[in-house]
Recover the amino acids of this structure.
């Protein structure tokens, strides 16, 4: 499944939110040298209970709006994300 998210780096804690039908992930990592992207994959891996190898950043490497390819059923992904809210 493809998941579109907005990333906000340099936050106090890692947190996921839902705003206007968009997933917003607040990450503690800075947006320097790909650290926020690595933190995004690690955090989603933790939330979805999937290995990091099943989550791949496909678009938005340097942008705040990103597209991720997740090797899991869409309903399972949405259920896990809503549970984390």
């Amino acid at each position: 499944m493809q998941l579109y998210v907005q990333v906000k780096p340099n936050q106090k804690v890692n947190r996921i939110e839902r705003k206007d039908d968009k997933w917003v992930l607040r990450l503690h990592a800075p947006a320097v040298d790909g650290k926020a992207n690595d933190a995004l994959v690690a955090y989603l891996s933790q939330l979805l209970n999937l290995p990091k190898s099943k989550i791949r950043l496909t678009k938005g490497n340097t942008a705040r709006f990103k597209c991720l390819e997740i090797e899991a059923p869409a309903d399972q992904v949405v259920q896990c994300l809503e549970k984390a809210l």
